[in-house]
Here is the input.
Amino acid sequence: MQSSKNLEATFKNAIRIAKSLPQPEIGDDTIIAYSSGGKPPALNLYIALIQAGARATIAPASLVATSILPYRETGTVIAFSNSGRDARAINLLMAASSLGVKAYLVAPPLHPAVEDLVASLEAETITVESEATLLTMMIATLHWRPQLMGAREQRIQEEIEALPEAWEWIQERYSDVLGAAQDDVPARAYYSPLMEAAAQYHTLASGKPSYELEDSLLIEARGERPLLFLSSVEAYNYKDILLGLAMRGVRPLRVEVNTDPVTANIYASIIAGIISGRLE
Here is the structure.
């Protein structure tokens, strides 16, 4: 487990690296793929695209290669992986290359065994060299996203510029949750749809499973204190489930983020990293 100061330094380094990464070509009908731990940044980019009104598809890399690319016209493919020798991501790049589809692989430095193969394909790699690869990728998607309409775009830009100061804000705003979770690490986490990226990040950082919030009534028993990743914009949709948990004596540790959906998973993932003692 890293110290709080080391975690903060890793976080700020991730911000710096994310800003320096080259930007993939993102148009309409972008296909977002993931494998080997790459789901959190893939989800984050997907949310950013649909919030901007763009058409996008998200799916596992193997499904994109076998069941999407061969059967429809698509835009650019952007694949996320947390492995330097991810067979499914490489197979996807090969499929895209053979079909003449522009593809990017966002991943850590490639293993020499696959580096030459990838270089021979009609694909580009965006190499992420960071102590916190996934968090760096997630932050990078904020810089890659299409612009939103009106004042909302300005607010998000202000959030992105202030991201280095978010560490202290999170420590203060979520002090109760952070203290309770670190004293008694929750066995499970649940998430609303917009917050799945943070929940998946939590699973990869902590090794603890995450489930859809709908499943909580089937699993949790009286006295349990699971983590709950929830966006404020979705909270009203789950009043019945939250009431049902309360009636059963379940008291979730609510990581409820009241920011724009495009940035909410970044803050929640930082919280997950602090709880687990590592930034993935």
